[in-house]
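Structure (tokenized):
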């Protein structure tokens, strides 16, 4: 059984990986696109979630390493989805879009809080990790297949919608340029 001190280290180890990839996630999303970075972040996070029970059965150090690597995968996701907002959601609608998306975080937590004990009772604690990791893999498949980093790359976006997005973006750029000229 883990001592309380080791348990605290184990729980916080996720955040070690998470903290160090925040800036990296933004850099990579700007360079390679939010779709790829968010998708591969979820893929890594899901794979290390699935590997968590094996790591726990093997050694404390391997479990600690798996948690850090899980954090590395999740850390790049927030900057990547903000990159997608900047490219997909018009400026005037962005705050509502972010609020809507962020409201899904506690909904996901509620889902996990309800389902995890059920999964653990029915199949064992390991299956909580296998199930949520597998859910992430399924999500990645659909994400990779249906999402693009830029609206201009999406095969189903209409020229009209694309025109509205470009017009709104150009309008906001001009407003920002005028603001910067006045404040300098």
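Design, position by position:
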């Amino acid at each position: 059984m883990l001592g309380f001190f080791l348990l605290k280290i184990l729980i916080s180890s996720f955040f070690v990986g998470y903290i160090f990839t925040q800036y990296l996630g933004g850099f990579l999303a700007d360079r390679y696109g939010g779709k790829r970075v968010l998708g591969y972040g979820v893929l890594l996070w899901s794979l290390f979630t699935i590997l968590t029970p094996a790591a726990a059965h093997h050694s404390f150090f391997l479990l600690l390493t798996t948690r850090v690597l899980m954090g590395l995968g999740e850390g790049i996701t927030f900057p990547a989805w903000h990159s997608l907002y900047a490219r997909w959601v018009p400026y005037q609608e962005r705050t509502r879009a972010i609020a809507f998306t962020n409201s899904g975080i506690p909904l996901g937590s509620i889902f996990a809080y309800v389902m995890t004990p059920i999964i653990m009772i029915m199949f064992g604690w390991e299956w909580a990790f296998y199930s949520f990791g597998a859910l992430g893999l399924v999500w990645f498949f659909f994400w990779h297949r249906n999402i693009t980093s830029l609206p201009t790359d999406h095969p189903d976006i209409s020229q009209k919608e694309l025109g509205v997005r470009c017009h709104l973006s150009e309008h906001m750029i001009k407003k920002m340029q005028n603001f910067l000229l006045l404040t300098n």
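Reviewer-requested clarification: The mean pLDDT is 87. The CA atoms of residues 85 and 93 lie 10 Å apart.
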